[in-house]
Amino acid sequence: MTVIASNLGFPRMGSNRDLKKLVEAYWGGKITADALLAGAKALRETHWKLQSKFLTPGYVPSNDFSMYDHALDHAFLFGAVPERYASIPSKVDQYFAMGRGLQRPAEGIDVPAMEMKKWFDTNYHFIVPEFSPKTEFHLHTLKPVDEFLEAKALGIATRPVVLGPVSFLALGKGDKHAPAGFQTLSLLDRLLPVYTSLLNKLEEAGATAVQIDEPILALDQPAELKAVFAKAYAAIRAASPRLSILVASYFGTIGANIDFVADLPIDAIHVDLVRAPGDLDLVLPRIAASATKAISVGVVNGRNIWKNDLAKSVATVQRAVAAVGASRVLVAPSCSLLHSPHSLEAEVKMNPAIKLWMAFAVQKLEEISVIAKAAVDPASVADELAANKAAIEDRKVSPLIHDPAVQAELRNLSPSMFRRTNDFAVREKVQQAKLKLPSFPTTTVGSFPQTKEVRVARQKLKKGELSEAEYDAFIKAEIEKAVRFQEAVGLDMLVHGEFERNDMVEFFGENMRGYVFSQNGWVQSYGSRCVKPPIIFGDVSRPTPMTVETSVYAQSLTAKPMKGMLTGPVTMLQWSFVRDDQPRKDTTFQIALALRKEVADLEAAGLPAIQIDEPAIREGLPLRASEHKEYLDWAVNAFLLSSTGVKDETQIHTHMCYSDFNDIFQSISDLDADCITIENSKSDLKLLSAFEKHGYTRGIGPGLYDIHSPRVPPAAEIKERLEAISKLIDKRLLWVNPDCGLKTRGWAETEAALKNMCDVAKQFRAADVA
């Protein structure tokens, strides 16, 4: 008997961001829809063939591929296409319009994108399905079937991955026409016939097993959800009695939800034993009590890049084998490998001593294969186990990791380092006297377009084709253009544009000790947007100032106030691959101490305002309420540690996006920032409800338009939104700004959108004076 080697999902972008290049070429009109679809098909083939080398036949995933987002795929699949997209004739364009908006004035098309939110506590963003009491479902596409048949034609048996019916509905929202109190799960009876029809079609195509992802099982769930799951899976089993069904939960403990999941008429349960190692004791007895059910043990970390401790994982799998037998145990990653970079093979410049400690997605497949073999026959992979043990031990004792000076700083923190000298009421008066900002002050969130010229200059610098002096001159010229543009358009609080930064986290990591960087360690953030997370391998410190020279230069170009721009400590943590050999709190405080020094240097250099972005603070919130307080306490303190060492007159800004704020409002207030800018444009003002409800009393800039779409919002639309916001928030506190940074946009759309925004602010200002 052998243990099954399986996978839950594979990165979509390809070894060289192939999918990104394909879809962006299509969006830019450089290739046809047919060429896009052909390129995507070729990429899927490559990924299936690669995975089949390591996995048990039949356990390679299909339908895990997406050209934009898997939640969007399922909304499109089940025909949950909002009416505003119905007139778009091409299905490809309709699909992308739902994800990123579409503006074609000549064709009378001008539609915004659907709302985007963080996928649980990851840095991946998903498109939120929209429903109403009138929503009717149908199979708008047959994507899961088509991709299963693609793999079958290659001789590769796959296990299709489908988002579970309960999670699909629960993760959606009522559209703007839905009545108050509308429950998306009320649509389950309409969805199930369509859902089971899809499973029937997969069976007809030859599928023998399906992976149904129900990630909401990692959340605290109300008792009534038991009946919802029971209804859904009774219908699924009745419609597909021969189909082997694995229900996958990940990102945290399944907890008490196992009480009803174990009783569902399904064939296997996947648990995330990286995030919740205790779930083995929770789930295994329930599996053992059944004569046929299997357990999928997620022992390989799908969300980090450190080598698996194979000996530890093998022992875990052997416990499961002893309880239920090898044929009923599946070895898997903790979650889809979507959140891991493609392969270490391209990392030829990384310090070999540090690279030895890592595993990207392809290497994780190798680990899964070795663990599955070792669980029943360790001798067959003795060399692999020995090499892994040596790497694990090498990392533990490496002198590269520990810095006694940084550890001493952590031990010597004092309470005064976590608070401003005076409260906001005092600071506000001092800051207004210094800054002399008008009512409805305008600003941006930080970055300006990273044009092709900017990217080419950076590449030339790395290749040695530009000298440091030539590159610096180029960056200064870009900064000056941005400053002159901001002055011309009428912005009040300026930014330097961040042209010298490849990424808001990577840039700072490159200037700190304790980080290492990959050449090609890209992961998908949203759509075609990829990020290359820094890797925190050791104690973090700041050897020299990182942004002061650039910020001082930008301020020298204008009499208007300039914001220094930093990325906050929690976001630096969340958007990096983080060392797993010490508490995350300690690593975050190390980063905060480094940033605190940068903040002090910016203030000393004359910057009147400093923005410390924390878009990931809500993202890091544990999925279970019982763990919230501990996390929020140290997350807030990390921000305070980074930001409070300044005078009253220095205005501290922060930025957050794609978050539900109601459950962390007190913590947001505790950050004690003088101004917060937030994503708001795609959320129907619901994010502001927390600020209105709790009576937020500091500066706030709710985003007035969506920067993730190339669409230019008309001035009338911005005005309407600001009018709605001003009914919820004291106009004395309101700032006027876009949703987020403008890095991914082009200059033409940026100029048009910001002009409209500033014109609206001037209208409100004039009315306020009148």
UniProtKB/TrEMBL annotation:
Q: Which InterPro entries match?
A: Cbl-indep_Met_Synth_N (IPR013215), Cobalamin-indep_Met_synthase (IPR006276), Met_Synth_C/arc (IPR002629), UROD/MetE-like_sf (IPR038071)
Q: Which Pfam families match?
A: Meth_synt_1, Meth_synt_2
> Which biological pathway?
Amino-acid biosynthesis; L-methionine biosynthesis via de novo pathway; L-methionine from L-homocysteine (MetE route): step 1/1
Top enzyme class of this protein?
transferase
Instruction: Determine if Metal-binding is one of this entry's keywords.
Output: yes
GO-annotated biological processes: methylation
**Residue ranges of every copy of the Cobalamin-independent methionine synthase MetE C-terminal/archaeal domain listed in the record:** 440-762
Q: Which cofactor does it need?
A: Zn(2+)
For this UniProt record, the keywords arranged alphabetically read as follows: Amino-acid biosynthesis, Metal-binding, Methionine biosynthesis, Methyltransferase, Transferase, Zinc
Specify the Cobalamin-independent methionine synthase MetE N-terminal domain's residue ranges.
5-321
Molecular-function annotations in GO: 5-methyltetrahydropteroyltriglutamate-homocysteine S-methyltransferase activity
What Enzyme Commission number(s) appear in the record? Answer: 2.1.1.14
Taxonomy, superkingdom: Eukaryota
**Cross-referenced Gene3D superfamilies:** 3.20.20.210
**Which family does the UniProt entry place this protein in?**
Belongs to the vitamin-B12 independent methionine synthase family.
Function in brief: Catalyzes the transfer of a methyl group from 5-methyltetrahydrofolate to homocysteine resulting in methionine formation.
According to UniProt, the name of this protein is 5-methyltetrahydropteroyltriglutamate--homocysteine S-methyltransferase
User: To which species is this protein native?
Assistant: Polyrhizophydium stewartii
